[in-house]
Amino acid sequence: MKGVVKAVALAAAVSALAGCSSYQQRSQMEAFNTSWVLGDYNAAIESMRPKPGLGGLKKVEDKRLLEVLHQAEAKRMLGAHDEAIALYDEAEVGMKLDDTTGLASNLLEGGMSVLVNDAERDYTPMLSETILVNTYKGLSFLHQGQRDLARIEFNRADDRTRRAVESFADEIAAQQAALKDGDGTEQASISKSLESDALQQSVSEHYGNTAQWNVYSEFIVPASTYLHGLFFLASRDSGDLDKASVSLSRVAEMAPDNTILRQDAELADALSSGRQSRQDLAPQVWVLYENGLGPVAKETRFDIPLLLFHGNTSVPAYTGIALPRYSDRAANRDALSINADGSQFTLEAFSPMGKVVNTEMQSRFPAVLGRAVASAAVKALIQKSAADELGAVGQLGSALFAASTTRADLRSWQATPDHWEATRFDRPASGALTLSTQAGPLGEVSLPDWPYTLVYIKRPSQQGPAQVSVIDLQGEHTGAQFTLGATPAVASR
């Protein structure tokens, strides 16, 4: 390898920067989660104020994307929908900038992800996160009575879902193309290592077989597709009922034991086919509940066998890699129930985020593993050259660098739920709903006299209150938002 002395010096500098960056990210996540669990959304926003870049300059959109995502959802929870939409717009700019830079542009060119680890790349959101961005924006626009803008967002979420397989394939293809360019020694070491049965066996033993994960048959964020279906079911525009039928049927197929989803799919099909008339349908109320805290990534470290090429010879070596493995956090076990004019309605669970993330990670895992192996191979080659040219000092320095920078990318949007729950019923004559848990009543919600009403509830933890939005699914009226479970109940906006 060329310029080993420079490479080792650069490695030391990058290692120091990586440590500072990783510590900052961990601190932000911890502070956000502490406030988020308690329902202190102003403190959660403050914890995610984007830190200045090097030299004190403001980060560009793609470099503050993770912080902005967290701030946006906290603003939505506070009922500050204008600010939430503006932040989600900024997040989408960052997502587009990330798309245009190329999925593997620096894979073999000494880029941060290879020389250090994935956590030092600009944050690339999971596809499920980008879909939820559009879903949450759609809800905020509906809350404001901006039906046309809500339609755009729900359609974008649906489009991202439909293009999922193509997106995953593009990521893997970009990485494979990068392996065909650049330094031949590095490429051969990476390619041959990835192809080896010994490496694949090591991954299977220490990380597990991704083919055995609990996943959906195809990529979907069921809650987003469900909201897409409800929006178009309530729409009066020509042809929208067909869209509603397709989306609601797809969600029902993914959760065959959920009677609410099945009944919604049957209603959409009956309206679309003309078997059911809107005029004969009583005003409908849907309750959709975001329950608990979504999955987070934890690090799995283990050694893998590599084949390192030096000229025309190959040398076996063992070195460590670190991969992210997602695990569930906590759902609220205190079941939510709805009482309306003496009738009690039970919500049925669907759309577990752990299953959504597993489905996505299973498709993206070849790319994640490829970057980890590329990083390990490049570091191993640096160690070999440093030992050859600098002796024990070079070997020790490069080994310390490799050990200190072998980390998995554990970043994720921590404002997602464990799962969603849903129910539907005719609007009660009194227009009053009482929300209760086993611990006692949360509060009462008054329903406007709308033909299609969505009561959207989000409660990350039993330690904090529930945020409740009453939304006109037809987007003709401004919604209302309440904080329930606090003392006293507070109307946000």
Overview of this protein structure:
Residues 1-18 form the signal peptide. The chain is an alpha+beta fold and 493 residues long. It has one domain. Helices cover 50% and strands 19% of the residues. The chain is built from 14 helices and 13 strands. It has helices at 4-38, 41-47, 65-77, 81-101, 112-115, 127-143, 147-162, 164-178, 184-195, 197-206, 222-234, 240-254, 259-273, 353-405; strands spanning 284-291, 296-310, 313-327, 337-340, 343-346, 348-350, 419-426, 432-437, 440-446, 452-459, 466-472, 480-484, 490-491. Strands 6-7-1-10-11-12-13 form a seven-stranded mixed β-sheet, with helices on one face. A four-stranded antiparallel β-sheet has the order 5-4-8-9, with no helix packed on it. It has a two-stranded antiparallel ribbon with strand order 2-3. Helix 3 packs antiparallel against helix 4 and helix 8 (164-178) runs parallel beside helix 14. The model is unreliable at 100-112 and 487-493 (pLDDT under 50).
Please outline what is shown here.
With 493 residues, this protein is of the alpha+beta class. It has one domain. Helix content is 50%, strand content 19%.
